[in-house]
Automatic annotation (TrEMBL):
InterPro entries (alphabetical): UPP_synth-like, UPP_synth-like_CS, UPP_synth-like_sf
PROSITE patterns in the cross-refs: UPP_SYNTHASE
The EC number(s) this enzyme carries: 2.5.1.-
Species in which this protein is naturally found: Fodinibius salsisoli
Designated name of the protein: Isoprenyl transferase
Cofactor: Mg(2+)
A molecular function GO annotation: ditrans,polycis-undecaprenyl-diphosphate synthase [(2E,6E)-farnesyl-diphosphate specific] activity
Active site annotation, chain numbering: 37, 85 (proton acceptor)
Length: 275
């Protein structure tokens, strides 16, 4: 298979070994979702403007996308612009829009060559014309790719997503297509913007904030959470390996008993029946 390279640097041996170790160690998350935070503080700590931090953040986006494709992670969702981000100073919003449009223009071919599919969730209609155009073109160009699904959450919020799903379901009830009693978890999931994407296995938040910030509220019900103090522009592949390593150490219980406890309880049950 063609080696993945978004960053145009050859993968060194030590990195290959780090990836091989992770793959040997255990199961990888199929879907990683990231709240990219700390661009502003990173820039400030270097005596620079916030937009300098966003620019550096794009380099992390490239590196993390590349490494997810190399490892075989199937879905990567990045919280790139929240509904609440529209309230930031106009200058910063405009700089982010320009950066997004420019990055898409620069990277679309590269994503395509590396068999990566670009998708978005959120209110894309609110974006300036140039951004929408770059997004539409990149989505169209990469639509048949299947190595990694890179989903950008843009003008996205979890509450917006749930509200839209509720509206769609209410219309279906009104049109007599379904009964209110038919509505269940799966039906709600299938009316969200992420209907085609499995729920995230691992949610990462950078910059040490212990919040979900209106990200994938419904979808993260059973996701493992990993929070690091590292600011997003410094979050590169070695940091991702740490997050995946931590994920592999956890036992996902989905509300049930742990495997150890299940065995113990089964033993007690047999004992009860035989005494
Ligand atoms: C959070 O840092 C980051 C954002 C609101 C924007 C993230 C955008 C990028 C990394 C660049 C564009 C993305 C793509 C996909 C090309 P912050 O500004 O909230 O930092 P702070 O909490 O330190 O103020």
């Amino acid at each position: 298979m063609k080696p993945i390279s978004l960053t145009n640097t050859e993968q060194n041996d030590s990195d290959k070994q780090s990836q091989a170790r992770l793959l040997e160690r255990g199961t990888l998350p199929e879907h990683i979702a990231i709240i990219m935070d700390g661009n502003g503080r990173w820039a400030k700590s270097k005596g620079n403007m916030r937009s300098y931090g966003h620019k550096a953040g794009v380099e992390s986006v490239r590196d993390i996308t590349e490494v997810c494709a190399q490892l075989g992670v199937k879905y990567l969702t990045l919280y790139a612009f929240s509904t609440e981000n529209w309230s930031r100073p106009k200058l910063e919003v405009n700089a982010l829009m320009r950066l997004l449009a420019r990055s898409l223009r620069k990277e679309a071919e590269n994503l395509n060559e590396n068999n990566i599919r670009l998708e978005t969730i959120g209110q894309i209609d609110r974006f300036p014309k140039r951004c929408k155009q770059e997004l539409t073109e990149a989505i169209e160009l990469t639509k048949d790719n299947d190595r990694l699904n890179l989903c950008l959450a843009l003008s996205y919020s979890g509450r917006w997503d749930i509200t839209e799903a509720v509206k769609k379901l209410a219309h279906r009830v009104q049109d007599g297509e379904i009964e209110p009693e038919d509505i269940n978890d799966d039906m709600i999931s299938s009316h969200l913007s992420t209907a085609e994407i499995p729920d995230p296995d691992l949610i990462i938040r950078t910059s040490g904030e212990y919040r979900i910030s209106n990200f994938l509220l419904w979808q993260l019900a059973y996701s493992e959470l990993y929070i690091t103090e590292t600011y997003w522009p410094d979050f590169r592949r070695d940091e991702l390996y740490k997050a995946i390593h931590s994920f592999q150490e956890r036992e996902r219980r989905f509300g049930k008993l742990s495997k150890k406890e299940q065995k113990k309880q089964a033993g007690l049950h047999v004992q009860e029946l035989t005494t």
